[in-house]
Amino acid sequence: MSKKYVYLFSEGSGKMRELLGGKGANLAEMTNLGMPVPQGFTVTTEACTQYYIDGEKINGDIQAEIMEYITKLEGISGKKFGDLENPLLVSVRSGSRASMPGMMDTILNLGLNDQVVESFAKKTNNPRFAYDSYRRFIQMYSDVVMEVGKKFFEKLIDEMKEAKGVTLDTELDADDLKKLAQSFKAEYKSKIGSDFPSDPKEQLMGAVKAVFRSWDNPRAVYYRRMNDIPGDWGTAVNIQAMVFGNMGDTSGTGVAFTRNPSTGEKKLYGEFLMNAQGEDVVAGVRTPQPIHLLKDISEEAYNDFVAICAKLESHYRDMQDMEFTIENKKLYMLQTRNGKRTAAAALKIACDLVDEGVLSEKEAVLMIDPKQLDALLHPQFDTVALKKAKPVASALAASPGAACGKIVFTAEDATEWAKRGEKVVLVRLETSPEDIEGMHYSQGILTVRGGMTSHAAVVARGMGTCCVSGCGEIKMDEENKQFTLGGRIYKEGEFVSLDGSTGNIYGEALPTVEATISGEFGRIMGWADKYRTLQVRTNADTPTDAKKARQFGAEGIGLCRTEHMFFDPERIAAIREMICSDTVAQRETALAKLLPMQQSDFEELYEAMEGSPVTIRFLDPPLHEFVPTEEKDIELLAKTQGKTVADIKAIISSLHEFNPMMGHRGCRLSVTYPEITAMQTRAVIRAAINVKKAHPSWNVVPEIMIPLVGEIKELAFVKKTVTATADAEIAAASSDLHYKVGTMIEIPRAALTADEIAKEAEFFSFGTNDLTQMTFGFSRDDAGKFLGSYYENKIYESDPFARLDQVGVGKLVKMAAELGKQTRPDIKLGICGEHGGDPSTVEFCHKIGLTYVSCSPFRVPIARLAAAQAALKNK
Ligand code: PEP
Ligand code: MG
Question: Catalytic: 832?
Answer without folding.
Answer: yes
